[in-house]
Amino acid sequence: MPFGLLVRVNNHFQSMIFGGVLVRDGTVETFQWVFTGFTRMMGDKHPQTVLTGEQKNDVFKI
Questions:
Q1: Mind listing the GO molecular function terms for this protein (predicted)?
Q2: pTM of the full predicted structure?
Q3: Distance CA 53, CA 4 (A)
């Protein structure tokens, strides 16, 4: 099962863990549901970068 870790880096370059999610499948719809819930909990602030870890250079700037 895919595991997602929701992390932020503060102004002092320290990692802050907001939460983790263990999902049953890795479909696009599931990850959309995770990010929708996460942005709702963060006051509708969207992430600036998404790291997937699937391939060596998978970094998405939003």
A1: zinc ion binding
A2: 0.61
A3: 10
